[in-house]
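# step 3/5: fold
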Amino acid sequence: MFLREINLSEVYLCREETDFRKDINGLALMVEDYLQENVLSGKLFVFINRKKDKIKVLYWDMTGFCIWKKRLEKSKFFWPEHLSMSRKIILSFQQFKYLLEGFDLRFWKPHPELKFEKVS
C-alpha cells in the first residue's frame, strides 16, 4: 500500500552533508528551505552524513512522514555530487537503487541516444 502513495519518478538527493541528529522535522525543513521542494509531494528525499556511510530517506505517504536509514558497515556511498552543481541532485528510482547497492554513478553511463532521420 505505501509504495502506491510514493512518487518514485524522481528521487531528490541533498548534495551537502547533513547533520544526522536531525529527525523528521529538521529534515522536512531542509527539504522546504534548502532544497526548495514540497516535502508533502510524496517524493523521496535522501540525505547523507559526513562520513558517507549512512543515508536517511524522508517521504510523506499521505498519512504521515516516514523516515528510514541505512548504515554501511565497511563501505561508503558513492555520492554523485558530479551530477549537479545545485543544492539537489535528481535521480531516477533505478539510479537510486544502484546507489543503494554501491554503484558509482560517475561510471554508470547509458548507451548514447541515436537520432536517425529514416531507416535504410
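# step 4/5: annotate
Residues 21 and 27 are 10 Å apart (CA to CA).
# step 5/5: archive (pending)
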